[in-house]
Design brief:
- This protein is mainly alpha-helical and about 80 residues long.
- The protein has a domain of about 45 residues.
- Helix content is about 75%, strand content about 0%.
- It has four helices and no strands.
- Helix 2 crosses helix 3.
- The longest helix is centred in the last third of the chain and has 24 residues.
- The chain is elongated and about 50 Å long.
- The two termini are about 25 Å apart.
Protein backbone atom coordinates (compact mmCIF):
# COMPACT_ATOMS: atom_id res chain seq x y z
CA UNK A 1 0.00 0.00 0.00
CA UNK A 2 2.98 2.32 0.58
CA UNK A 3 3.41 2.94 -3.13
CA UNK A 4 -0.22 4.03 -3.39
CA UNK A 5 0.10 6.97 -1.03
CA UNK A 6 1.38 9.02 -3.96
CA UNK A 7 -2.23 10.04 -4.69
CA UNK A 8 -2.53 11.26 -1.09
CA UNK A 9 0.71 13.19 -1.43
CA UNK A 10 -0.63 14.72 -4.65
CA UNK A 11 -3.66 15.94 -2.70
CA UNK A 12 -1.47 17.49 0.01
CA UNK A 13 1.91 18.20 -1.64
CA UNK A 14 3.01 20.64 1.07
CA UNK A 15 2.94 17.80 3.58
CA UNK A 16 4.79 15.08 1.67
CA UNK A 17 7.40 14.40 4.34
CA UNK A 18 4.86 14.37 7.14
CA UNK A 19 2.49 12.09 5.21
CA UNK A 20 5.27 9.57 4.63
CA UNK A 21 6.32 9.71 8.27
CA UNK A 22 2.77 9.37 9.60
CA UNK A 23 2.04 6.51 7.25
CA UNK A 24 5.09 4.64 8.54
CA UNK A 25 4.50 5.43 12.23
CA UNK A 26 0.81 5.96 12.92
CA UNK A 27 -1.60 3.04 12.48
CA UNK A 28 -4.64 5.34 12.68
CA UNK A 29 -3.28 7.43 9.83
CA UNK A 30 -2.59 4.24 7.87
CA UNK A 31 -6.21 3.18 8.38
CA UNK A 32 -7.56 6.51 7.12
CA UNK A 33 -5.21 6.34 4.12
CA UNK A 34 -6.37 2.81 3.33
CA UNK A 35 -10.01 3.89 3.57
CA UNK A 36 -9.29 6.88 1.32
CA UNK A 37 -7.53 4.77 -1.30
CA UNK A 38 -10.33 2.21 -1.32
CA UNK A 39 -12.89 5.00 -1.59
CA UNK A 40 -11.16 6.70 -4.51
CA UNK A 41 -10.74 3.37 -6.29
CA UNK A 42 -14.42 2.54 -5.93
CA UNK A 43 -15.39 6.07 -6.96
CA UNK A 44 -13.38 5.68 -10.17
CA UNK A 45 -15.23 2.43 -10.90
CA UNK A 46 -18.62 4.08 -10.37
CA UNK A 47 -17.68 6.98 -12.64
CA UNK A 48 -16.93 4.53 -15.47
CA UNK A 49 -20.44 3.12 -15.18
CA UNK A 50 -23.72 4.56 -16.29
CA UNK A 51 -26.17 6.90 -14.60
CA UNK A 52 -27.47 4.19 -12.27
CA UNK A 53 -24.45 4.90 -10.07
CA UNK A 54 -25.15 8.63 -9.63
CA UNK A 55 -26.31 8.21 -6.03
CA UNK A 56 -23.28 6.07 -5.19
CA UNK A 57 -20.97 8.61 -6.82
CA UNK A 58 -22.46 11.38 -4.70
CA UNK A 59 -22.11 9.32 -1.51
CA UNK A 60 -18.53 8.31 -2.27
CA UNK A 61 -17.60 11.89 -3.16
CA UNK A 62 -18.88 12.94 0.27
CA UNK A 63 -16.93 10.11 1.90
CA UNK A 64 -13.81 11.08 -0.04
CA UNK A 65 -14.14 14.67 1.16
CA UNK A 66 -14.67 13.53 4.75
CA UNK A 67 -11.58 11.32 4.59
CA UNK A 68 -9.51 14.15 3.08
CA UNK A 69 -10.57 16.44 5.90
CA UNK A 70 -9.75 13.77 8.47
CA UNK A 71 -6.29 13.21 6.95
CA UNK A 72 -5.61 16.93 6.85
CA UNK A 73 -6.64 17.26 10.49
CA UNK A 74 -4.35 14.38 11.45
CA UNK A 75 -1.47 15.90 9.48
CA UNK A 76 -1.86 19.35 10.95
CA UNK A 77 -2.46 18.20 14.52
CA UNK A 78 0.39 15.69 14.65
CA UNK A 79 3.57 16.41 16.53
CA UNK A 80 6.50 17.89 14.64
CA UNK A 81 8.67 15.35 12.88
CA UNK A 82 11.64 14.05 14.83
CA UNK A 83 15.02 15.54 14.00
CA UNK A 84 17.26 13.40 11.82
Amino acid sequence: MRENISSIIESFPDFETKIKWLYENDSSFQDVCTDYLLCTSKLAEFRKGDNKFDKMIFEYEELQNDLEQEMLHMIKSSKPLPER
